[in-house]
Amino acid sequence: MKYFAILVVSLYLIRCNRHTTIEKTNNDVPHENTIPLNEHKINFLNPISTTLIDQNIRSIFQDKKGVFWFGTNGAGVYRFDGIHLNQFTEKDGLSNNQILSIQEDQFGNIWFGTGIFGVSKFNGRTFTSYATNERLHFSKNFKKEWKIAKNDLWFFAGGGVYHYHDTSFVYLPLAETKSISDQSLTSPFVLSRFAVYSILKDKKGNVWLGTQAQGVLRYNGKSFTWFTEKGLNGSAVLSIFEDRRGNIWFGNNGAGLFRFDGETLTNVTEEKQLTNYEFKVSGASNTNTLARIYSINEDDFGNLWIGTVDAGAWKYDGTTLTHYTMKDGLSSNAVNTIYKDKYGQLWFGTDENGICKFNGINFQKFNLP
Fold first, then answer.
1. DSSP letter at 179?
2. Is 70 part of a structural domain of the chain?
3. Domain residues for 67?
4. Could you say which residues of the chain have pLDDT below 70?
5. What is the rounded distance in angstroms from the CA atom of residue 31 to the CA atom of residue 110?
6. Which pLDDT score, from 0 to 100, does residue 167 have?
7. Is residue 161 part of a domain?
8. Assigned domain for 77 exists
9. What count of other Cβ atoms lies within 10 Å of the Cβ of residue 359?
10. How many domains does the chain have?
C-alpha cells in the first residue's frame, strides 16, 4: 500500500543530530524544539514563486483567518494568505517535513501531524514539537486518561493516538482497549496494526479512529467499540467522514468505501461492484475501481466526494456514482486529500501534480495570483 510504504520508510529515515531546547509549561508538559522564526529570517512579506510549491500534496487546511495551509509529502508546509506564500520545514522547527494532517485549536494555534508520528504546533511566531521519545507522557491508566473534552485535539501515532487537552499531551495505545500489553504493539513510534491513520470527532462527540489493520475504533467517552466487519479491518482506514445526515463513512485502502448509519455497516464498494480484488493479491492498481480510498468529503449539495490513490475521484449522490479522472480535467488520478473551504469550494491535493479545484462544473489547476 502506497501510504503504508511512505510511513514505513519514514520510520527508518536517518536524521542528523541537531541542537534542541526544552521548554516546560506550569503543568510540566515538555515543549521541544521551540525555535523563534526570526532566527531563521522568515519574512511573511517575502513571497515564494509558485513554481517552488511541492507537487505532492498530502493535506489542505483553511484557518479561521482565511489563510490556507498546504502540507506536502516531504517538503514541509506552505502558508498562503491570498497574496504571499511562505514555506516552513524542519529548519524552522517542524518535527518532520511530511505533513499528514493540519488543524487549529481554540486559540488560533495551527497543529501539524507529521511523518515519523510527530506533532508540531505553530503559534504565529514559533514552532513547538511534541511526541519525542524522551519527553512523551505515556498513559499509565488508560481507563482514567481516555477522555473527551470540548476543545481537545487528536493525532496519529504508531500504536495508537495522541490526545491533547488543556496543555496535557498524552499517548494512548489502542491495544490496551483490547487488553493487549504487547510492547511491540504499543509504541507510538513503531508502526503496528493499531497505528492510527484517520480521526473524526462526530457531532455527538464520539471519537472515531481508523487504524492500519484493526478496522475502526469508536470511543464515546465511556466505552470502546471496534468495527471490523465486511473487510474494514486488514487494510488501512485512511479516511473517516460524517455527512450532513449523520452517516459515518470509512475509506479503506483496499476494501473501499463503507457507510455506517448508526445501526448497519455497509460496504458500498462491494455493493456497487467496484472492488479491486487484484490489489489484495498482487498490489495492482485499477483506474475503474473504488477500492483504494484516501479521502472523503461532501459538497454543499450533499454529494459525497471520494478521493482514491489510483482511480481519481468519485462523486456519490446516494444513488449514482460519477467517476472523474485526468480525462475529465482532474490534475492527477492519485488524490491524497479533498478539502472544502469556507466558500464551499472543493480542493483536491494530489501526488505529483499539485492542487486543483472543482468549481461545480469542471476542474481547474490551482495557481497563485
1. T
2. yes
3. 1-135
4. 1-51, 132-136, 139-140
5. 15
6. 83
7. no
8. yes
9. 9
10. 1
